[in-house]
TrEMBL record:
It is an enzyme of class 1 (oxidoreductase). Its EC number is 1.3.5.4. It comes from the Bacteria. SUPFAM superfamilies: FAD/NAD(P)-binding domain, Succinate dehydrogenase/fumarate reductase flavoprotein, catalytic domain. This is Fumarate reductase flavoprotein subunit. It comes from Paracoccus haematequi. The lineage of its organism: Bacteria, Pseudomonadati, Pseudomonadota, Alphaproteobacteria, Rhodobacterales. PANTHER family: FAD-DEPENDENT OXIDOREDUCTASE 2 FAD BINDING DOMAIN-CONTAINING PROTEIN (PTHR43400:SF7), FUMARATE REDUCTASE (PTHR43400). The keyword Magnesium does not apply.
Amino acid sequence: MERPVDFTQSYDVVIAGGGNAALCAAIAARRGGASVAVVEKAPRFYRGGNTRHTRNMRCAHDSATETLSGPYTEDEFFDDLLRVTQGKTNPDLARMMIRRSKDMLTWITEQGVRFQPSLGGTLSLGRTNSFFLGGGRAMLNALYRTAESLGVHVVYDAEITDLELDGTRFVAAEVTTPQGKRRLPGHALVAASGGFEANIDWLKEGWGEIAENFLIRGTPYNRGSLLRTLIGKGMQQIGDPTQCHAVAIDARAPKYDGGIITRLDCVVFGIVVNRDCQRFYDEGEDIWPKRYAIWGRLVAAQPGQIAYIIFDARSLKLFMPSLFPPVTGASIEALAGKLDLDPAALRATVDRFNAAVQPGQFDDTILDGCHTEGLTPAKTNWARRIEEGPFYAYPVRPGITFTYLGVAVDDEARVQLAGGGRAENIWAAGEIMAGNVLGQGYAAGIGMTIGSVFGRLAGEGASSHASR
């Protein structure tokens, strides 16, 4: 049974946000004996932020399970994180997160979440990532059911728009609701309200006008108002405003909330050209889940922030398709015409690529070494001639999932102060502090790891503080 937030009372723990990080914090705090109020900006139907669009989470584990095909050690996880971030991470926090992730599969199952064997194809995640049975919304609904059964109070269509502090101590939140502004006092605050990816004006501060051409894969409600407030009140900012989880998504996707079904996993099976029909990066650099998140930034750097994935009939069924059908042509020239590209230029690029492809045994399940020679940029794996019609293409634009600029935290998820030290009773979890772990880059499932591990930590810490 849902319990609405009562604005006439004070809560032990006030939680901003309603996604995975917020719910893990709420459940942990409530299990610690605290009274808990969750303040979710979205309407009930759209609750949960970007968690609604997720499929899996990445956790270290020592052996195979019913849903995981083999071990994924702490050291391997850390090496993968170092590779995708190119070392731009807080190593102590990262190692702590990875160590604690080993407990999360059990803990989150205890909260009602169920897993299934992983999907196949380009995902290649059967060993490393646990897939939610029913996807992110089912996972989210399970957490809400548990939170509600424990007595967590929730208010929807409500946003924390200001904070009342006494020095570094949180006293109360100003909550803007459809009925007006309300004061919500509490003994501790957990900020788990996401990034600012839906705030195009804020994106422009880092990216410039090209941000107008970005699509937002996730919720339109993550506009960063609490993040602005925290930074404005002396909390330590961390991260680069242009760093984010950005992937190449179908250019026909809606401006907001397209989610996972607009992502395209076929880059490795063809070539990617810009509107001038020029390739601009190695499409076969690494196994897809470790490198898919670089393609949003790559496309953002192209003219008009648009690109086109070109492949032939042999590759059509090797990947999970987009919500939208591919553009099809009986010839490369016909395909170019449908894409408003120069047919001669696209033909020339395809011919140069085909001529550079070396003999090899194509195998989409491994780094197969099928490569080009004498071509810049090279394609280092899965290079196969594009020659068997019909020919296909997907137009792609940068799809922003979440931003990395956030607030600094310590290994207890406590928010750090710009002037040194830490806030007395303010914690943060999820995307609002993801930049502590993700200085750049991404690997599939890490966002959920950050949210669940730091969410649980924040909830436990806030509950313990409130009980003193």
